[in-house]
Amino acid sequence: MSSAERFRLRMRHWRAELGRTIDYLATRDDLPESEQEYNYLPRITQPVLMLNGRYDIDATPAAQQALSELLGTPADQKKKVLFEAGHGNLPRFQVEKETLDWFERHLGSATP
Fold this sequence. Notes:
Layout: H1 3-27, E1 48-53, H2 61-70, E2 78-83, H3 92-107
Parallel strand pairs: 1-2
C-alpha cells in the first residue's frame, strides 16, 4: 500500500470516528443550556464595534446580525460594519480607520 493510500485510509477512519463522536455527543443530555452563548450575550453592556465580512463562511450576515441583537449593549453604543470581504481578510486600512474612530468616540481623543 502506498503512502497516499495509507493517508486516504487514515482520513476515512478519522472521519468515521469523528462522525461517531458527534453522534454520541448529540445523544447526551448533560451539556447544560447555561453554557450556550445566547445566555451570556445579553450581559455584555459595554460599547461594541463589530467588524465583519459579508462573505464570511463562519458567520453569515444573518448570524452576525443575530449576535448583535443579542448583545445587552444599548443600540447607540453598538456599531456593526460589514466589509465586502470574507473571514479573516478584512481591508486593513478601513478596519484601522473604523477602530480608531470608535476608540476616539468612546475613549476620547489621544491628543491633549
